[in-house]
Amino acid sequence: MTRPLDGITVVSLEHAIAAPFCTRQLADLGARVIKIERPGMGDFARAYDSRVKGLASHFVWTNRSKESLTLDLKQPGALAVLWQLVARADVLVQNLAPGAAARMGLGYDALRQQHPRLVVCDISGYGEDGPYRDKKAYDLLIQSEAGFLSVTGTPEDPSKAGISVADIAAGMYAYTSILSALLLRDKTGEGSHVDVSMLESLAEWMSFPLYYAFDGAAPPPRAGASHASIYPYGPFQAGDGGTVMLGLQNEREWKAFCEGVLQDASLAADPRFASNAARNEHRDELRALILATFAGLATQDVLDRLEQAQIANARMNDMAGLWAHPQLAARQRWRQVQSPAGALPALLPPGRTDRFEHRMDPVPAIGEHTDAILRELGLAEAEIAGLRHSGAI
Fold it and tell me: pLDDT digits over 225-239, tens only?
C-alpha cells in the first residue's frame, strides 16, 4: 500500500519538540527520517523524564518511525558524513541554535547551489532575521511573547498551556510547509527554503483575541476554563465531585437547558438571564443556581440530562480517562510501536484514510542505525571503526 511520502528522505538536525514533531508526521506518511543525534547523549529530550518504561514521554511521542544516526558535527569526518546524506536527501530540517547550521555550511544559500531540488526547513524561536533573531526561545517564553498568557488563566493569575503549544504550532506549520514545498517541487523542479518561527506560528493561533482587541479595544479577559463572553459555558461541579463541561450557544438552547437540565422553565424568561449579554452580566447568580441543581446529581446524571436536552457537554477527563476513552477505542485509534523499552501503545495520526496505513515503526535507541547508514553510504568497516574511535559517531 503506497504512502504519500514513500521514497522521500528527510535528514533532520533536531532536538526537543518542534522539529521532531514535524518530522515524525512526515514519517507517519512514509518518509524516511534520519535523525542526527549527539554521540552518547543524543537528543536532550531523551532525558526530560523517564515515565514510559524508563523512556522520556516527549521523546516517545515525537520520534517513532525514525532512524537514529549519531554524529559529532564538530569533527570533519562526521560533517563529511552529513554532507553525503544531504546530497541524497529531499528535505533538510533543523532547529539548532540560531546561526549554527549556517556556520556548518548548511545555510540555504550555500545548499541551493549544490542541491537545487532540496527543501530546507529552518525552525527557530523568532525567525532568521529581525531584532529578536538571536534571542533564546523556549515554549513558555514564546507563549508569553505571543500574548497567550494574557488571555489564559484566571483574572488573578495568568497560566501557560499544559502542553508545549508554541512548539506544537511551529511543528505543525513546518510540516505543512514542507508538504507544500514538495508539491511545488513537483511543478517547478526546484526546492524551497522554509523559515518557520515559533512566535509567528503561535501569533497565527492568537488571531481571535488579536481581532477581538482590534484598534485598541479591550482584549478578552482571562476566564479560567469558562468562556470569556458566553455564559453558561465552562466547568460545573456535580454532587459526587466530578466536573462537567457544558456550553450554550443560543436562546433556543438556553430554554432547553432551563426546562430539561435545571428543570425550572421559568428561568428562561427571567430578565437577569433572558439574553447572553444578561447572563454574562449576572454570571455569579446564574452559576449559583446551576451548582445548586447539580449538587443533588451525580456526574453521569448531569451528563444524561444535558444529552437529553441536546446541550453540548463533556466530562472533564484526566489522563487515565483519556487512555480509556471509549470513542478512541471504538474507532480503533490505538496501535503498538516497538521501542528500546519494548512494545508501547501509540495513537494513530489524526485523519483516518482509506488509501493507506500510517507508518508506525519503532522509537529508536541512540545511534541504533549509525552503522547501517554508514555502510549504505559506502564506508568500509575500518572507516566506521575509525570514526567511532575518534568519537565522531
Answer: 998 889 999 999 999
Residue with cell 531584532: 131
**Alpha-carbon distance 49 to 69, whole Å?**
22
Q: What would the 3-class secondary structure string for 182-222 be?
A: HHHHHHHCCCCEEEEEHHHHHHHHCHHHHHHCHHHCCCCCC
| Residue with the three cell numbers 533532520 | 12
pLDDT tens by residue, 279-327: 999 999 999 999 999 999 999 999 999 999 999 999 999 999 999 999 9
Cα gap 77→208, rounded to integer Å: 50
Q: Is the dihedral of CA 391, 50, 33, 338 positive or negative?
A: positive
pLDDT, tens digit (0-9, with 9 covering 90-100), for 106-139: 999 999 999 999 999 999 999 999 999 999 999 9
For the chain, domains (ranges, CATH) are 9-205+326-390 (3.40.50.10540), 233-316 (3.30.1540.10)
pTM surpassing 0.70?
yes
